[in-house]
Amino acid sequence: MTKRKSTTEFEDIDVEKSKIKKKSKKEKRQNNEGEKVTTEEIESRKEDEITQSTEDAEHDHEQQDRFPNSIPVKKTKKNRNRKKEDGAVKKVTNQEERNPDQRIKVALKYLKTWYKHRDQWKFQKVRQLCLLQHMYDQTKISDRKFKRLLEYLSGLVGCAREQTIKEAGQILVDNDIGSDNEEDDENSEENEKLKTVKIKIERATKILQQLS
């Protein structure tokens, strides 16, 4: 015969079932909370990204308001080309600084091309700067080539023109030589300096007349 379970045994079984149900409910609740946290984290990240994008856009608008004529460098092909040109100018200048004589030769060739073959000539800032730096030095630029340079200078515009006029005027102010000064054969070194100054004054005067 089968033994009947006592009331106590049934009660124990019910308690175990109750514990199992509570445990499974607890685990389910924990899983739901974990999923909820994960969802909240995702939503939070999305909100942070949107906020950052908004702040970046506001910053760009503020920059545009402060500098309405400014153009972002990364969006302009012109600025990229300008950087390349400036880099090329610096590279050429550094190379030619090691050989100044070669630099002036190339600059004079540039001037000759402008004077005789205008259709083949192309503006080069570094060559123009070299000519402007040495135009008062007769040993670097002869009188015949200086006449060509005077014609070239008439085409100067903007800051280059203003700076050339200012420099020529300053030379006349700094080297005011009176007509009473005469060369002294006994002091050839002093005479050479005086001659150099007179050439600078003469060229500065012609430059001012050309650009006036």
Automatic annotation (TrEMBL):
Residues 109-170 form the WKF domain. Residues 19-28 have a biased composition (Basic residues). Residues 29-49, 56-65, 83-98 have a biased composition (Basic and acidic residues). Pfam families: WKF (PF10180). Residues 1-98 are annotated as: Disordered. This is WKF domain-containing protein. It comes from Patella caerulea (Rayed Mediterranean limpet).
